[in-house]
Automatic annotation (TrEMBL):
This is Centrosomal protein of 70 kDa. The keyword Coiled coil applies. GO terms for cellular component: centrosome. InterPro entries: CEP70. The lineage of its organism: Eukaryota, Metazoa, Chordata, Craniata, Vertebrata. It comes from Betta splendens. It is found in: Cytoplasm, Cytoskeleton, Microtubule organizing center, Centrosome. GO terms for biological process: cilium assembly; regulation of microtubule cytoskeleton organization.
Length: 116
């Protein structure tokens, strides 16, 4: 096998590997192989695929579920969120009682109008 043929085979194998990785990392997106086995594989297509994978699977700090480092921290954080929700519900009920708003749901603008 010549060097050029070997290079083409390796690039095609790389494209297949990237396609498999894309299906695994972003299964909600339909597989979009830029080339079939008979078409020429373009390096540009592979670069676009890698950029897309990086964009859709970003693991930065802003993507963490409940801002925890591991799965074991999710349940305590969910409990904390639920506790805060209960506190806020109680506070809203108390404000409604103090302002004599009854049980009717008011918008924020209506609540401010009642206070003035």
């Amino acid at each position: 096998m010549q060097a050029a043929d070997l290079f083409c085979v390796m690039v095609q194998e790389l494209q297949r590997g990237l396609d498999k990785l894309a299906v695994r990392l972003v299964p909600w997106q339909p597989p979009d192989s830029g080339a079939s086995s008979t078409e020429a594989v373009k390096v540009e297509d592979m670069m676009v695929l890698v950029d897309s994978l990086l964009e859709n699977t970003c693991t930065g700090d802003d993507q963490k579920l409940f801002d925890v480092l591991s799965l074991s921290g999710v349940y305590p954080r969910m409990n904390e969120v639920y506790t805060r929700l209960g506190e806020m519900t109680t506070a809203m009920r108390n404000v409604r009682d103090v302002l004599d708003l009854g049980t009717v749901q008011y918008t924020a603008a209506e609540c401010i109008h009642c206070m003035c």
